Amino acid sequence: MIEFIKGQIDFVNPEYIVVENNGVGYLIYTPNPFVFRKNKNEMVTIYTYQHVREDILALYGFQTREERALFMKLLNVSGIGPKGGLAILASGQPAQVVRAIENEDEKFLVRFPGIGKKTARQMILDLKGKLHDLVPEGLDDLFTSEDRLILESTSSEALDEAVEALKVLGYAEREIKKIIPELLQETMTTDQYIRKALQMLLK
């Protein structure tokens, strides 16, 4: 398996990023691609997971090994595929997910797209008590990098991109429309809009 890819961010869209390494562009699916926009044309290290099936060969990338490890644990749960795993991690709050599993909080888990009661129950049965090694102190802040964010030229463009990213993650248009008015009240980057929207959708 490819442990990580170190290279420059060449392209970012709502579904994936492209990392250029020695003249080769690697298409990598990530939980929130716009996290990497601020690093465009900079050297980054992406920790990868290679997913192989009869009909697909895909790379999934993460900012940390812990994030990747949680993704891989989620894939072991019946009913959760790569898309579902990315949607869960996109909130940027893995500790919240772990707490929900430990507390058997099905109501929280079913708020993620594609996660029904049966899958939420399976997550609890399969993972409860097995995630402590992935939750060191301070994990709540694992994915926050507000101090490095660069403001977008226009918030409307950033919001449009955030909406597209939410759709890619599996959220329904009717769910997204409910939170748009509140999001319009703030001027943020695409990444911030996605984080804010996910916090609202998971309430």
What's this model, at a glance?
The protein has helices at residues 65-75, 82-89, 94-102, 106-109, 117-127, 155-169, 173-183, 190-201; strands at 4-12, 16-21, 24-29, 43-53, 56-62. The chain has 203 residues and is of the alpha+beta class.
Distance between the termini: 37 Å
Structure classification:
alpha+beta
Strand content: 15-25%
Shape: globular
The CATH homologous superfamily of the largest domain is called 5' to 3' exonuclease, C-terminal subdomain
Order of helices and strands: EEEEEHHHHHHHH
The total tally of domains equals: 3
- The residue ranges in which pLDDT falls below 50 over 5 or more consecutive positions are 136-154
As for the CATH topology of the largest domain, it is: DNA polymerase, domain 1
Largest sheet, in brief, is: 5 strands, mixed, barrel
Helix and strand arrangement:
Blueprint (H helix, E strand, L loop, with lengths): L3 E9 L3 E6 L2 E6 L13 E11 L2 E7 L2 H11 L6 H8 L4 H9 L3 H4 L7 H11 L27 H15 L3 H11 L6 H12 L2
Parallel strand pairs: 3-5
Antiparallel strand pairs: 1-2, 1-4, 2-3, 4-5
Helix pairs in contact: 1-2, 6-8, 7-8
List keywords for this structure.
203 residues; alpha+beta; OB fold (Dihydrolipoamide Acetyltransferase, E2P); DNA polymerase, domain 1; 3 domains; five-stranded mixed barrel; globular; DNA helicase activity; DNA damage; DNA_helicase_Holl-junc_RuvA_I; DNA repair; Holliday junction branch migration complex subunit RuvA
Structural summary, described in words:
The protein is α+β, with helices and mostly antiparallel strands and 203 residues long. It has three domains: 4-62, Nucleic acid-binding proteins (OB fold (Dihydrolipoamide Acetyltransferase, E2P), Beta Barrel), CATH 2.40.50.140; 65-141, 5' to 3' exonuclease, C-terminal subdomain (DNA polymerase, domain 1), CATH 1.10.150.20; 149-201, no CATH class. Helices cover 40% and strands 19% of the residues. It has helices at 65-75, 82-89, 94-102, 106-109, 117-127, 155-169, 173-183, 190-201; strands at residues 4-12, 16-21, 24-29, 43-53, 56-62. The longest helix is centred in the C-terminal third of the chain and has 15 residues, at 155-169. The model is unreliable at 136-154 (pLDDT under 50).
